[in-house]
Amino acid sequence: MDQGAPTSHPYQQVAADIASKIASGALKPGERLKSVRTLAEEYGTTSATVQRALGLLDDEGWVNRVPNVGLFVRDPADSAGSAPTMRDVMTALDEVQQAVADLRRRVTSLEGTGGPEDGRPDR
Hints:
elongated; Arc Repressor Mutant, subunit A; two-stranded antiparallel sheet; mainly alpha; single chain; 2 domains; Bact_HTH_transcr_reg
C-alpha cells in the first residue's frame, strides 16, 4: 500500500496504519494479526470497516489469509516476483502521466509556442 497516498475512508486509514506497522517491522513476517473484533475496538471502528481494511491488505500482498485460522503478515520474500497489484499499476500510470505532462510543458517551452494563438494546435 502506498503509505504516502491520501486516505479518505476509515478502512483505508486502518489499512494504512497496519501496513505502516508491517513496513516498520512492528509486525513481523509470519505474525498473526489480532482478531477483527480486537482491531475494531483498538481503532474505534466497526468490524465491517476492519474486515474491509484487512481485505485491502490481503489484496495488496501485506498479509496472507488462512481460512478458519486468521491473517498473517506476509514475508516480503514470499511475494518477490509476484504480479503487481492494481494500486501498483495505477501509481505507475500516474507517474507516467505526470512525466508526459512535464515533457509536454518542456517541449512547448523550447518551441516557444504559446498555444492556439500562434496557429499551432495546443497539445
